[in-house]
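Good morning C.,

I know you're traveling, so I'll keep this short. The sequence:
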Amino acid sequence: MTKIQDSAFNVEELGQYQLCLTIGPKEFYFAVINTNNNRCLSLEHFSFQKVGSMERLTNFMKEIIEDHHYLSAGFWKEIFVCVKNQRFSLVPNSLFDEAHLTDYLNWQCEIDEEKDAFFYHQHPALGLVTTFATSKKLVKAIEEFYPNKKPIILHQTSPLLEGALQAFEPSLPLKMHLHCSGSFLNIVILRKGGQLQYNNVFTYKTPEDLLYFTMLVIKELELNPETLPVSVSGDIDFSDMNFTKLYQYIRALSFSTRPTHLHFGYMFDEVFDHQFFDLLSLPLCK
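The tokens, ready to paste straight into the viewer:
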């Protein structure tokens, strides 16, 4: 469990704060950001064994929020909720029609129109729309906690795309971004001019799995792992086998930095800059 709180945090000023929540099969984490100065004031992470059903996952989330001393407060300035799963699709702006939301997903994944809720988020700079499905029970629980401020519900792909786009160096012709989170590996590849070349989410269990999927994408796109710049973020660091395996084949490998729109106090030095990249990029999805 990670728990960090800036001394500037004031529970009486929640009306000026953004609440950013992320929930996945193995973890729940959140950050609080002061919109007056874009300073991150709080960050907490809860991990648990992978749950067998969405109902159990929803119950875990509800217990955490109910037991927390300010999470259940209803007077936030903005609330972002990020869900992690593989049930999403990217659609070009020119082809997107909200009336066909379920059609886009049916081509990519299994959905249940009785049990699922469907959402989309536009990425104007990329010319794309992220469409996704998640549990109606999960959405209902979130909306019941925050009846006074409608949460902005997003797929994890959205903050990762926006975060990678913000971090993209204009001088590079191409860059790959890997985000390791729980059992998910997100791969984003951007070309010069901020054009998206590739995006997908894989599930992995071992460092060998992570390397396999990464090299599979590199091979399919006929890229050179010796020269391809690759940034990594999330649950990975210098000392673990995930990084070691990747570095054996990818030489221009580096860790991502925190989103540049945010400011942090010294207390956040206890977590790596590349951790929680998805969570801290949520405010970019506006």
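Safe travels,
E.
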